[in-house]
Write a structure and sequence with these properties.
It is a single chain. The protein has helices spanning 2-10, 78-81, 156-161; strands spanning 34-43, 46-62, 65-76, 86-95, 100-109, 112-123, 126-135, 141-147, 174-180, 185-199, 205-217, 220-230, 237-244, 247-257, 266-268. The model is unreliable at 12-20 (pLDDT under 50). The protein has a 15-stranded antiparallel beta sheet that branches. The relative contact order is 0.20. 7% of the residues lie in helices and 58% in strands. The chain has one domain. By secondary structure, it is mainly beta.
Length: 270
């Protein structure tokens, strides 16, 4: 289930900028936006409801400056809890120019409870990430990373990515971005697959951009997720297909409130 949360986040594609000028012009987000997703698992060839995820954007003051606060809450339902319980709460704070300042993830996954935190700062044209991971029954892990390029967390990367122009993308193009995990910085890889029309369960058809998240093990590329993003100024994921070790899962956008731009990617309504 935690892969679903990760992909809900990184499925707002991105190209990372060179140098530590990590600000971006906000073209897609406004305070008051609320997104709701249905999570489903494939269980013995039958798709079952697995839980829900909700994301909201707020205007806040942080360190005396106006900022954005993004919250993501996800939970499995009673049926899935029997096999694997998940209660995740993620929060990030960015400047109005979408520079990451703070990130926290509190995750109850199975019998584990973990809190990851990252504090970002900028000095001498460098991005600095101070990280901390606390796990129940284990020692606290701390890390500090510096980079002349930008670094992100799971939420701030989507904040910036939603404002990027993808008109110059080519099919097969790889997009790599560095992400703070709570203990280290890891490069993540997305591949652009092209465009496709997706029909949602309610009968609405969306024109989408299709991307894949891939992993590399022993030199081999393995597709982990396929996801569909609205081809409009909102850049919202409407469908995620996950290929897991024990089966498959999907996430579907159920409800949108407070979106900044019209959903011009809708090509047909039922």
């Amino acid at each position: 289930m935690k892969k679903i949360i990760f992909i809900l986040l990184c499925s707002w594609f991105t190209i990372c900028a060179a140098g530590a000028q990590c600000a971006a012009k906000n073209e897609a987000i406004q305070a008051g936006e609320l997104l709701t997703y249905d999570l489903k698992f494939n269980w013995k060839f039958i798709w079952k409801d697995a839980g829900v995820a909700r994301m909201d954007m707020q205007a806040v003051t942080y360190q005396g400056k106006p900022c954005f606060r993004t919250n993501l809450v996800a939970a499995t339902n009673g049926m899935v809890d029997f096999f694997f319980k998940m209660r995740d709460t993620l929060t990030c704070i960015t400047t109005n120019r979408l520079e990451p300042l703070y990130f926290r993830k509190g995750a109850e996954e199975g019998d584990r409870y973990t809190v990851d935190e990252v504090w970002f700062s900028y000095k001498d044209d460098k991005c600095i990430a101070n990280q901390r991971r606390m796990r129940r029954g284990r020692d606290t892990v701390r890390a500090r990373d510096e980079s002349e390029g930008c670094m992100f967390d799971m939420l701030s990367i989507l904040m910036q990515a939603r404002s990027f122009d993808v008109d110059d993308y080519t099919v097969g193009q790889k997009i790599i971005f560095p992400m703070a995990t709570g203990t280290k910085i890891e490069d993540q890889t997305l591949i652009y697959r092209g465009k496709k029309v997706f029909k949602a369960e309610g009968g609405v058809k969306y024109r989408c951009l299709v991307f894949s998240l891939v992993e590399y093990k022993k030199g081999k590329e393995k597709e982990v997720i396929t996801f569909y993003i609205t081809d409009d100024k909102n850049h919202l994921p409407v469908r995620l297909d996950l290929y897991l070790n024990f089966g498959s899962a999907k996430a579907f956008l159920k409800e949108i409130k407070g979106n900044r731009h019209p959903l011009t990617s809708i090509v047909e309504k039922k």
